[in-house]
Design goal:
Bound molecules: 4'-deoxy-4'-aminopyridoxal-5'-phosphate
Radius of gyration: 21 Å
Structural class: alpha/beta
Distance between the termini: 57 Å
CATH class of the largest domain: Alpha Beta
Order of helices and strands: HEHHEHEHEHEHEHEEHHHEEHEEH
CATH topology of the largest domain: Aspartate Aminotransferase, domain 2
Largest sheet: 7 strands, mixed
Number of strands: 12
Strand content: 5-15%
Helix content: 40-55%
Oligomer: single chain
Strand order of the largest sheet: 2-8-7-6-5-3-4
CATH superfamily of the largest domain: Type I PLP-dependent aspartate aminotransferase-like (Major domain)
Shape: globular
């Protein structure tokens, strides 16, 4: 249809490569679903809620619990239908057609996607060969940008931007800086202490990873209350439905369980890394998140992806020159990780011809 904007016509549909598999390690989700007893509490509360009414825009109970959990005033928190919605809200609030957003490459695809839809340009700064952030280049190129999106730990590399570097960047640039901390629970390093010094810093978080709530869709941002009040106007009303509000209210009361599961995933990340040290064909690159890059010395990324999928393991393949021999693998449950390691061992035997 010729009325559709060019930016949409040219855009590829959002899709994740692959098909369903027994072991799903492709979207950085938590491998742990919530126990039935906790789900039951959520159902009971939902049962007492009117579904015919719009959800609350200011759910003080939820905001108070979240403020407590995050250690940030509730006036400086904005909830969204996943952090993806907040990315859109932020871009709509700070940028217009013709503006430029600076981010890194390889990085999280949604910033570019939303920008493209809105005819906003993207400046991508390459990460260094070891996937660390090139702070000097970011600062140099920031002059040409109106907004900066950084992800730490970065998706899909798992590399981090240190607190001192974020502080230095904020001293040097006078732009909104969005620090996406979707994986912060797994790194334990946050830029949050810098919020008190910089009104132009916004921190983005999600319930989709450590909290194991990807299906419910809930994200939030932390910022200065004066900024949050403006961003609120750009977000669609009632986008955070009663199901995710209720689930989060209950789950925030169970957050010690989240801490335990995060520790479990970190221990599994270390175990996989160590197991892979004895492999010849595969290597795990260091990561501060709940996923890591799996590098092969002989197979290309497509082959690794296909050979794992043939064996019922779904990982993430990226059509990127930087990832010619790398796929991204989410840390799964101990049983899923055993399955993965066994399948990698099979592939290694196949490739090296040893039986
Ligand atoms: N930011 C980053 C860096 C992510 O990796 C993801 C999820 N893949 C998101 C944001 C979006 O998360 P949500 O489910 O909250 O929309």
């Amino acid at each position: 249809m010729s009325y559709i904007k060019n930016s949409i016509l040219k855009l590829e549909p959002y899709s994740v490569p692959g098909r369903p598999a027994a072991v799903k390690l492709n979207q950085n989700e938590s491998p742990f679903d919530w126990p039935p007893a906790i789900k039951e509490k959520i159902f009971k509360k939902l049962d007492r809620t009117n579904w015919n009414r719009y959800p609350r825009e200011e759910n003080t109970e939820l905001l108070t619990r979240l403020a407590d959990y995050a250690g940030h005033s509730s006036e400086g928190i904005l909830l969204g239908n996943g952090s993806n919605e907040l990315i859109q809200t932020i871009i709509c609030s700070f940028a217009s057609k013709g503006d430029r957003i600076l981010t890194v490459r390889p990085g999280f695809s949604i910033y570019k996607r939303v920008a493209t839809i809105l005819d906003i340009e993207i400046i991508e700064i390459n990460l260094k060969p070891d996937f660390s952030f090139d702070l000097q280049k970011i600062i140099e190129q920031a002059q040409a940008a109106g907004l900066i999106f950084l992800t730490s730990p970065n998706n899909p590399t798992g590399s981090m931007m240190g607190l001192e570097d974020i502080d230095y960047l904020l001293q040097k640039v006078d732009l909104p800086v969005i620090l996406d901390e979707a994986y912060v629970e797994f790194s334990g390093i946050t830029g949050q202490p810098l919020l008190k010094n910089y009104e132009n810093l916004i921190i983005l978080r999600t319930f989709s990873k450590a909290f194991g709530l990807a299906g419910a869709r809930l994200g939030y941002l932390l910022g200065a209350p004066s900024v949050v009040n403006q961003l609120k106007k750009a977000r669609l009303p009632f986008s955070v439905g009663l199901f995710q509000q209720t689930a989060a209210e209950i789950l925030l009361a169970e957050n010690e369980l989240v801490t335990d599961l995060v520790e479990k995933i970190k221990a599994e990340r270390k175990r996989i890394y160590e197991e892979l040290l004895s492999f010849k064909v595969f290597k795990a690159l260091p990561s501060s998140a709940n996923f890591f890059l799996l590098e092969s010395s002989t197979l290309n990324a497509r082959e690794v992806f296909n050979r794992l999928l043939e064996r019922d393991v779904l990982v993430r393949w990226f059509d990127l020159p930087e990832f010619q021999n790398k796929v991204r693998v989410t840390v799964g449950s101990p049983a899923e990780n055993d399955f993965l390691i066994n399948k990698l061992r099979d592939i290694e035997k196949e490739v090296t011809g040893c039986r």
